[in-house]
Amino acid sequence: MAKRILSLEQLGAVPFSSAIQTEIEKHLKPLVDAGVLEIDFTGKKKGLYFMSFDMAITWGSTNQDRCWRYPGLFGETNAVFVGAIKGINYCENVRDRKTCAPVFKHSPDELGKQIAFTALHELGHQFGLNTKTSFAGAVEGGHTGDEHNFMFALPNHADYKDIRVDTRFTKKRTIKAGDTLSEIANQVGFRRWAAVQLPWKWLYEFKGQDGKANQQILRSGKPDLIFPGEEVWVPDYDARRKWRVGVELTPKSFTKPQLDSMTKWVDEGREFVQ
Asked: Considering the entire predicted model, what is its pTM?
């Protein structure tokens, strides 16, 4: 078996780098023990495989996007977007930064673990787990909805729903004088999406935990006639964050067939091309 080098670039600049290194060593140990892989944590060795840790804020970085949008891009085959992981947050009001809270708290058990899990996920892709035929239970792109596996991707989870139609994590908001459905919708992040539907209409049709839409519970039955003291359903970002962190940070591993497949891929010197 030929030994290949995996060079991890800029890891030393990443928060909780020692904890991240420990996770990577632990879960790639079968490849190292098989003699097919050497991991260079200094980033100085040139090898067939590399991964960079990008501290910059990347794609989808505005507050409004981070509050409600599709889960977000945390990495790609050769990179982990640390800045994006650090920066993603949920806001009660996207126009007021004081109402924003990070999805992953600045701790080794949250931010550090998510960076490590993202790195292992992307390395899985780099080592051949990149199609729906790569392993049992894989879907397109080599992902899975199994939160216990490193190839987990949030949109594939059985319980994941777009925030605009997810009735589980909702709460009531009391309308105040001067409020409009458009303003409330924009505050909670229901911005216009691909010119399909206006923000106020998303909120007007938004359903709460009781299954009722706001258009059913508003007294006038008209979106442009609301009254102070009335209540409307809005997303409960704190509850959504807790659920998301729970599934994202569930302990993960590679299965033996995945590890065997990755070992063979590396031993043969194959390289994933995006």
From this structure: 0.90
